[in-house]
Amino acid sequence: MSHPPPAQLEAARLDALRKLDLLDTPPNEAFDRITRMAAQLFKLPIAAVSLTDTDRQWFKSRVGVAHCSIPRERAPCAEVADTASMLVIPDLLDDPFYCDSHLAANGVRFYAGAPLNTRDGYCLGAMCVLGLEPRSFSDTERAGLADLAAMVMDQVELQHALGRVDPVSGIPNRTQFFDDMADLAIDRPEGEARLAALVNLATVEQLSNAVRAMGAAYLDEIAREAARMLRTALGPTRRLYHVGVTQFAFLAEPGEDLGDFCDWLGAWLDLRAASMTSRFVTTSTFGVVPFAVGGVQPLELLRDLYSAAIGALDGPHRVRVFSAEQNAAVVRRFRLVNEFGAALDDDSQLRLVYQPKVELATGRCVGAEALLRWRHPALGEVSPGEFFPVIEQTVLARATTRWVIERALRQLASWHRAGLAQQVAVNVSAVNLLEPDFCAWVLARLREHDLPPTALAIEITESALMGNRQLAGATLDGLVAGGVQLAIDDFGTGYSSLAYLQSMPAKVVKIDQSFVRDLDQDERKRALVATMIKLSHDLGQVVVAEGVETAAEAQFLRGAGCDQVQGYLYGRPMAPEDFERWVCAKWTLPRPRVARQLEPACA
Question: Do 285 and 262 form a contact (C-beta atoms < 8 A)?
Answer without folding.
Answer: no
